[in-house]
Design a protein that fits this description.
Blueprint: E1 11-17, H1 25-36, E2 40-46, H2 52-61, E3 66-69, E4 83-84, H3 86-91, E5 96-100, E6 103-107, H4 109-119, E7 129-133, H5 137-149, E8 152-157, H6 162-176, E9 180-184, H7 187-195, E10 199-202, E11 227-230, H8 239-246, E12 250-253, H9 254-270, H10 276-291
Helix pairs in contact: 1-9, 1-10, 4-5, 4-9, 9-10
The structure holds 2'-monophosphoadenosine-5'-diphosphate.
The site of 2'-monophosphoadenosine-5'-diphosphate has 15 residues, from helix 5.
Length: about 290
């Protein structure tokens, strides 16, 4: 691979978070910039919680073109932005920032990336029954995007955080005037919810490296006709996806959501159509290298 030549006109993008060492985004975006011949560079920035304000000041001062935002800044970042996209506002979290001459606008491409991963496979969630496991940041973006699209939702979360799941459900119901149920994540509720489900989304970290032997839903509850979307992308094929496939269900990996959220961010920064397939291939290569 040829090294990037940095010129006087090179534009800078990056990702802020803490921790940041595990991120796949630099590989994905730098490959994409190279592919379409853009003089852009993408770098990781480790920014701790107390220094977010200073980091954003730096973005304006140094005229950094765009950022991705990850844990723990997705919510806190909002107070430092000038404008907010309507879905990002509803979700209450931002993962992408575009800097137009010091005016910072926030978007959430996590939810849109999730939707795009479904749509590219010809799956239209409008009117479908979707069961979402987890009520954290990722679940929040996915749940709002699905509600916006007109899906019926059941959110299942561990008892520990059920109040948070209830709050998420009631906020979604309020904003979109649709009914959203929040239940404890246990076997009885899973059986009940999955009986009527078209799509199951694992938005928890269960099954993520190094805990690859774990799964949030046992094999006997999976069936043909169900679409199973696991947002975990490391490993690319989780135990849940392996078992869903064996049960005859259709499966979608978190890798697709990762790539689409990146592709949508790329298009906002550059105005150029993202080379999605190349981004997917490069991310898979990087993940495989990571695993070995
Ligand atoms: P993210 O930004 O990736 O969504 P998060 O906000 O920390 O990360 O949310 C993680 C989600 O996975 C939460 O819903 C969490 O449940 P709790 O709120 O009860 O912690 C869920 N989760 C993590 N580990 C889990 C486990 N072993 N079993 C069930 N749910 C789990």
């Amino acid at each position: 691979m040829k090294n990037k030549v940095i010129s006087g006109k090179t534009r800078l993008c990056g990702i802020i978070g803490d921790p940041i060492e595990h991120t796949m985004s630099p590989v994905m975006h730098n490959a994409a910039f190279r592919e379409v011949g853009l003089d852009y560079l993408y770098v990781p920035f480790k920014v701790n919680q107390g220094e977010l304000a200073k980091a954003i000041e730096g973005v304006r001062t140094l005229n950094i073109r765009g950022l991705n935002v990850t844990i723990p800044h997705k919510v806190a970042i909002i107070q430092f932005l000038n404008e907010l996209d309507h879905l990002a506002e509803k979700i209450g979290a931002v993962n992408t920032i575009v800097n137009d001459d010091g005016v910072l606008r926030g978007y959430n491409t996590d939810g849109a990336g999730f939707l795009q991963a479904l749509l590219e496979r010809g799956i239209e969630p409008a009117g479908k029954n979707v069961v979402i496991l987890g009520a954290g940041g990722a679940s929040r973006a996915i749940s709002f995007s699905l509600a916006d699209r007109g899906a019926h939702l059941v959110i299942l979360n561990r008892l520990l955080e059920l109040d948070w799941a209830k709050e998420l459900a009631s906020r979604i119901s309020h904003i979109f005037t649709i009914e959203v149920e929040a239940l404890e994540l246990n076997r009885r509720n899973l059986i009940r919810a999955l009986g009527e489900a078209d799509i199951l989304v694992n938005a928890t970290s269960v099954g993520m490296t190094p805990n690859i032997g774990e799964t949030p839903v046992t094999f006997d509850l999976l069936r043909p006709g169900l679409i199973v979307f696991d947002i975990v992308y490391n490993p690319i094929k989780t135990r849940l996806l392996t078992e869903a496939e064996a049960a005859g269900a259709k499966t979608i990996s978190g890798l697709d959501m990762l790539v689409w959220q990146g592709a949508l961010a790329f298009e906002k920064w550059t105005g150029v159509k993202a080379p999605v397939e190349l981004m997917r291939e490069e991310t898979i290569k990087a993940l495989e290298k990571h695993e070995n």
